[in-house]
Every structure is written in structure tokens, then in C-alpha cells.
Amino acid sequence: MSTRVPEVVANRILPLRGQRVMLDADLADLYGVETRTLNQAIKRNVERFPPDFMFQLSATEKAEVITNCDHLAKLKYSPSLPYAFTEHGALMLGNVLKSSRAVEVSLLVVRAFVQIREMLSSHKDIAAKLDQLERKLSSHDQAIAGLIDAIRQLMAPPTPTRRGIGFTANIDSKPRNKK
To answer: What CA–CA distances, in Å, run from 93 to 63, 65, 158?
Structure first.
């Protein structure tokens, strides 16, 4: 089991109902037991798995998971709906199964969930910085466009004021004194 790394476990973590979860079939595979055996252990210790630790998928969710995850194609022919476990539920399974492999897998599962949390956090930071940079560029673009318009106006020759043809008298002006 030591050859497995958190990335292998992380690939089995799915987003469902706004949470990151692992399905009973994947956890059974990691823990080295049959899914049926895993579910029996859960039923014997149901008080350890409240709704925020574990929930059963609907038929629609099962179909969606089978469609999106190639490694879960075997669930297509299963008459039962799979269970999904949050990070805490997957960790609790390690306590219920009580084997050295279960302890090792529990540690891998926790590390995988932590790795995903860190990755999502860094993605949020990067996205926020990109948004901030985009806003700055947008405001700079507007300022540069305004500056270019002002320069063009200064470069444009002034429109000449045309004098009328012929003699025009300026009545408002004072007459010149002739000496």
C-alpha cells in the first residue's frame, strides 16, 4: 500500500451535492475489502456515520457518476445505490475497519483531501489576482485611450476661422487717431 500516493486517492474524490466525497466502491478498493463487507461494517456502526459524514446517492446521481467516471462503470449493473463519504466519513471507516491497512489508507485519504483543499485555495488566490490584474489593465486601457485621444486633439491643426470676402467694417472697434 505504501506505493499509493495521495494523488491516486485524490483522483477518486468526486464533487457531489456541493461536497467532495468518495464512493463506497472506491474506498472498499483502497481499504482492500469488498464493497459488501464495507457496507456491513457501516451498518453495524451506523451511529458513527451521521448525514454530514455519509449519504446515499440518488439514482440520477449514480447514473451521472457512472457516466463521468470510467473506473466506476461496474456500478452500472449494481442494483443498490452507492454511498458517498465525506472526508470525515472516509476517516471514520478506518476506525470501523480496524486493520493496519485501514490506518494507512485513512492517512492517505486525509492527505488527499488536504491536498485538494490546498490546491483549490491556491486556485482561488490565483483567480483573485487575475481578476485584480484584469481590473487594473482595464482602467489603464481606459486611461491610455483617453491620453491618445487628447494627443490626437493636440496634433490636429486648428480649424481656421474664415474671414468673409470683401471689406467688412468693424463697428465695435474704436477709430484710430491719425496724426
So the answer is: 25, 22, 83
In the block, residue with C-alpha cell 488536504: 114
Give the whole-angstrom CA distance, residue 47 versus residue 53: 11
* Range 159-176 burial, b when 16+ CB lie within 10 A, else e: eeeeeeeeeeeeeeeeee
**Would you give per-residue pLDDT tens digits along the chain (179 residues)?**
444 456 777 788 888 998 889 899 998 888 888 989 899 999 999 999 999 999 999 999 998 988 888 888 888 888 889 999 998 888 888 888 877 788 788 778 888 888 777 777 777 777 677 677 767 766 667 777 777 777 777 766 666 666 667 666 666 656 666 55
* Residue 34 grid coordinates: 469488498
Only one residue has cell 470683401, namely 166
51 three-class SS = coil
Domains of the chain: 6-121 (3.10.260)
Q: What are phi and psi of 109, to 5 degrees?
A: -65, -45
